[in-house]
Design a protein that fits this description.
Chain lengths: ~160, ~160
């Protein structure tokens, strides 16, 4: 019931007019699903691990970059907004999940890396996060997944090559 | 080049590990596309009309609700975050694009509606917005669109019925 209500609130297609272009319908459905999944992940991470989505995302970026990232790179790579990057870094460093070391040749730049403890904690959270995503997308057949991957790939390519 | 750089920055699939589940890949691709399209719309609305995405979204919700919405309803329906709802309403009212009237029987609740001028201005912006979305999704065949609509529908239904 709670989920049903949230989906109805966030579902804007129901208010579309008949003459809206099918691209607009697809874009709103894409945005609705993306917002719904993100909201669900946000609340589960908070309930189960007491972590915010931006902090989880911050750790996820580091996990994918074994050589570490500068704060600037981290800031650009964050998938979700709402986080103050240096505030997050200060807190995660205090908790021993990341460390920051000066970049050789540029003492004002810092390279951020996961600590061993940070990597271990992230791994536990990432496993649950993956389970949730698998469940949420569980209604899709392999064929559906392939179709959507290929459609979204075309969209991404167009966005990369398009002028303006 | 600029678009290519933005897509590379925001494209997290390239950092995926081989053993990541295909659901995670699909979710990250979905999120990447959704973020990219939203960022593009945000910057075009600003350049062409000097309007923020939350303000555009606010007007779009009203356009789909000819009987008007209360501030609470508007707040729940907003598709994009980052806007201070009452700040947006105050500004749009000052510009003559919306009006606010007390709800009968509840003097502390306000019903918000587009003015004639607001409707006309929104219509012009919405037409351009639609063109941009059509262009961005223009690499998709009708079959791709159908496949994605049907996949996303399954996702939405699962999110609505799933327990927890």
């Amino acid at each position: 019931m709670k989920n049903q209500a949230i989906v109805e609130q966030l579902d804007h297609e129901s208010r579309l007019q008949d003459d809206d272009h099918h691209s607009i319908r697809l874009w709103l459905r894409l945005l609705t699903c993306s917002n719904l999944i993100e909201a669900r992940l946000r609340s589960r991470l908070r309930e189960e691990f007491g972590i915010t989505l931006p902090r989880f995302d911050f750790l996820a970026q580091l996990e994918r970059a074994p050589d570490g990232l500068t704060m600037g790179e981290l800031s650009k790579r964050m998938m979700v907004s709402g986080g103050n990057i240096s505030g997050i870094a200060t807190q995660l460093e205090r908790e021993g999940l990341i460390d920051r070391t000066p970049v050789v040749g540029n003492r004002r730049m810092f390279c951020v890396r996961l600590t061993t403890e940070g990597r271990a904690q992230f791994k536990r959270m990432a496993a649950r996060h993956e389970q949730w995503v698998v469940e949420m997308l569980g209604a899709l057949s392999s064929r559906d997944v392939d179709n959507m991957m290929s459609g979204l790939k075309k969209v991404k390519q167009r966005l990369a090559t398009d002028e303006g």
